[in-house]
Specification:
This protein is an alpha/beta fold. It has helices spanning 31-41, 50-53, 62-78, 106-125, 148-165, 189-198, 211-216, 221-230, 258-270, 297-314, 318-326, 330-342; strands at residues 7-9, 45-49, 82-87, 130-134, 139-140, 170-174, 183-184, 205-210, 234-239, 280-282. The strands form two sheets. It has an eight-stranded parallel β-sheet with strand order 3-2-1-10-9-8-6-4. Strands 5-7 form a two-stranded antiparallel sheet. The structure holds 3-O-methylfructose in linear form (3MF) and magnesium ion.
């Protein structure tokens, strides 16, 4: 089994199964109980939303935030875990109903930046410098409600203020084209990295690529990852899968399109991702139909598919591949890939 990958997920990956059309169907798993599952399931690191570590963060003083985050770090250490990344959960606060950084109201924009600073305090107290910005509501329901030029400048201002607040923090922007908004301002990794290049310290801005988000943008996730790897900007991934242009499904990795998954691993291997020490993060959802005692199978199954495909990539006949490319015989290359994946020859 390839041992050079390390795995993480966010606690939201263990969920109660509610969806927009129906209530929860499984009991809540307490945070501490979720942490206890990580090692058992074969994961080494936790992806935090700021208020996972410090619940009710808005009502707490800086001293209290730091104390509680340090308590959380002890809990992590006790479980043999580390914090891979942290993220400000702006999208659940009523103030952020029409976005935080891009809100039309300057008081809301100010709040979003202040909340991000609190997140950084939490992250640093957890021993982590990698901040993820999933820009959930930074977009529009209708084009006329915001100005895209101003919004881009507001996003840039927020990134710059975050970079100013901590010299240690590095930002991975997680692009997503839609949901919850009709249209997001940073829909692709190209937009994310361009925003980083416009910032005051481009070296400290990179990306996190989620498979489902690339697919929702109509793009190939492995090419998106290749683009970020070429720029040395792939700082984490959210592996999952997506069956066409629908709501964000967060299906188990490889479960919908094995060929996409194989190509993702090919590019991660070619780009030296395992040697970078960065984690393979999952962002997967258990089917609503899963009973509580088996509502973590999506995590172990994703990891199993990932590792099986690493084997497939490492046992692929690259001489055959080169020969097909030299002959420009892509039909032969394609059937070769399919036979390899199917194990049929
Ligand atoms: C939504 C997402 C988010 C982000 C997470 C990290 C809740 O589609 O992908 O998951 O990954 O918030 O900041
Ligand atoms: Mg994600």
């Amino acid at each position: 089994m390839p041992a050079d990958y390390r795995f993480s997920f966010g606690p939201w990956n263990i969920s109660e199964g509610g969806d927009p059309f129906g209530p929860t169907v499984r009991p809540t798993v307490a945070f501490a109980d979720k942490l206890a599952l990580y090692k058992k399931l074969g994961f080494e690191a936790v992806q935090f939303h700021d208020d996972d570590a410090v619940p009710d963060i808005e009502s707490k003083s800086p001293g209290q935030i730091e104390r509680e985050a340090k308590e959380m770090k002890k809990l992590l250490k006790g479980e043999g875990l580390v914090c891979e990344l942290f993220a400000p959960r702006l999208w659940e606060d009523p103030r952020g109903v029409d976005g935080g950084f891009t809100a039309n109201d300057p008081a809301v924009r100010k709040w979003a930046i202040e909340r991000s600073k609190k997140s950084i305090d939490v992250g640093h107290a957890l021993g982590c410098n990698l901040m993820v910005l999933w820009l959930a509501r930074e977009g529009t329901y209708i084009r006329e409600s915001k100005n895209s030029i101003d919004s881009t400048k507001h996003l840039l201002d927020a990134v710059n203020k975050i970079l100013d607040y901590s010299k240690k923090v590095i930002i991975a922007i997680e692009p997503k084209p839609n949901e919850p908004m009709d249209q997001a301002y940073i829909p692709t990794i190209g937009h994310a990295l361009a925003l980083g290049m416009m910032s005051k310290d481009p070296r400290r801005v990179g990306g996190l690529i989620e498979v489902a988000h690339s697919l929702l943008a109509g793009l190939d996730p492995s090419d998106d990852m290749g683009f970020a790897l070429a720029a040395n900007k792939l700082w984490s991934v959210h592996l999952n899968d997506q069956n066409g242009l629908k709501y964000d499904q967060d299906k188990s990795f490889g479960s919908s399109n094995l060929r996409h998954a194989w190509n993702i691993i090919r590019v991660l291997e070619a780009g030296g991702y395992p040697k970078s020490g960065r984690y393979i993060g999952l962002d997967v959802k258990a089917m609503r139909t899963q009973k509580a005692d088996v509502a973590h199978k999506h995590l172990v199954n994703s990891k199993e598919i990932f590792l099986a495909l690493v084997e497939k990539v490492r046992t692929w006949d690259t001489k055959f591949e080169k020969q097909c490319i030299a002959n420009r015989d892509y039909e032969e290359l394609e059937i070769g890939v399919m036979r390899h994946l199917m194990g049929s020859r």
